[in-house]
Amino acid sequence: MQIDDTDRRLLRHLLAEPDLPGALLAERAGVTPATCWRRLDRLRAGGVITGQSAVIDWRALGYEVEVSLRFTLDKTAPRAFDDFIEAARAVPEVLEIQTFLGQVDVRLSLIARNMAHYQQVYRSRILTLPHIADIEALMHIATIKATDGLPL
């Protein structure tokens, strides 16, 4: 889908303030409210805007530990990826699952309330995931850059 400068302005303002009321979004983007809604509808229909969501700070809910777990799977099992991913989805503390080509097959982003909780989750839910050949755990220390923004 082709977008123009007006679409880019709308998207920039929408990314910066997703809960901005429509009339204010239109004003900031320099278009009429009717043009704003028509363009947003076109961007949704074209698959550029796929939804809006709430961003919840899990630290504010008492989760203090974030760990990135990298897995190499036993790929001799025909359903290794499918079985592993299905089981990992059932772990409530897993926030993100990514698959890769290369030495690492799967990465899980996991949160825990503290180190004791992490140890309990690791032993009871992570080590029991199927088809694990190797695990590497990386303790998250700081986020230097995190953005969903695009260079619009």
CATH topology of the largest domain: Alpha-Beta Plaits
Stretches with pLDDT under 50, minimum 5 residues: none
- The percentage helix is 25-40%
User: What general outline do the C-alpha atoms trace?
Assistant: elongated
Oligomer: single chain
* Main β-sheet, spatial strand arrangement: 2-3-1-4
Average pLDDT works out at 94
Number of domains: 2
Tell me the CATH architecture of the largest domain.
2-Layer Sandwich
Your description of this structure?
By secondary structure, this protein is of the alpha+beta class. It folds into two domains: 5-45, Winged helix-like DNA-binding domain superfamily/Winged helix DNA-binding domain (Arc Repressor Mutant, subunit A), CATH 1.10.10; 58-139, Lrp/AsnC effector binding domain/regulation of amino acid metabolism (RAM) domain (Alpha-Beta Plaits). 36% of the residues lie in helices and 20% in strands. It has helices spanning 5-16, 22-29, 33-45, 80-89, 115-126, and strands at 65-73, 94-99, 106-112, 132-139. Helix 1 (5-16) packs across helix 2 (22-29) and helix 2 (22-29) crosses helix 3.
